[in-house]
């Protein structure tokens, strides 16, 4: 099968969708011998879609682990111009505000639709909403008479991003829609999408790199001693709850003053706010916080093994690959009772749930794990078993391919 994936970023770009499409593409090549091409941008992350000052990758063609990759240059200046007008239109709920939001979010990629239309592939699949390239993929596929599968990554709590009727209109025009969880699938169906055109595929992790690392080895690598470590490992963004975690830790430190806090992720614009919060802490607390930016994929298993409790108090997740990565390292997790996360974490079995932006509840959950290390270990081990049985990239790629095979049947082509 010849497959064209269209997505906002591809390794070395960082993000959950970026990793998902990379690993699914590689598995389709490895397991099934499919010919997979990825059309993507030359940005390292979504901030590059509207910030022309950020560094870029080189546009052009390359091959990575058997996957053909074409990076298109993004015109971020147009999106930058629309950033302020869309805020005003959104605040006033003007009728055209969803279109301004789409332009402001980007990525604006000249020539993308034409390139999709002309590219020889059996199926075109695009990830993820609310970004502009999704419409180029849908229109390019339809105008060239080929099936289009959309993978949205929708988390409805993000009103700015996902309360847009044009998203659900596009999904209704696609051949199939792929959701990460049943929660997302049910939401899309509520928006009028036919249930028989919606499939749950999940996300995955590679458990092998996590198999032969000890916590002592990992802690030594990052300069920790044997004291407990609470960790956040993921993208630094306003909705990810890093600020709430810092506030919660001021309560935790009253009971466990020697606990270390590890904050690891790509350095984004929000990271400056995180640093300001840290600098406002008492000096004794500041010494307990370790910031670790822009780590490599090879370091990721070490980071997860270095922590004793993984706290990821995000409010907007279509799944949360970071939970799987923590479980792959047999770590107990704390997430928020928001969006798809309760469909990922089985509360009291492999993790705990707290209210979003509730620092007191988050602190209580962290303290419970620190007080009951054997219970925390039991939950972490249960999480690892769930990963091995349901959430490896090999299984997730099979889920994607089953939908692709169904989509290219002649009676499914629109």
From TrEMBL:
GO molecular function: hexosyltransferase activity
Start and end residues of each Glycosyl transferase family domain: 223-385
Residue stretches making up the Glycosyltransferase subfamily 4-like N-terminal domain: 14-208
Record-annotated membrane-spanning stretches: none
Signal peptide extent: none
Pfam families according to UniProt: Glyco_transf_4, Glycos_transf_1
Name the UniProt record assigns to this protein: Glycosyltransferase family 1 protein
Species this protein is from: Brasilonema sennae CENA114
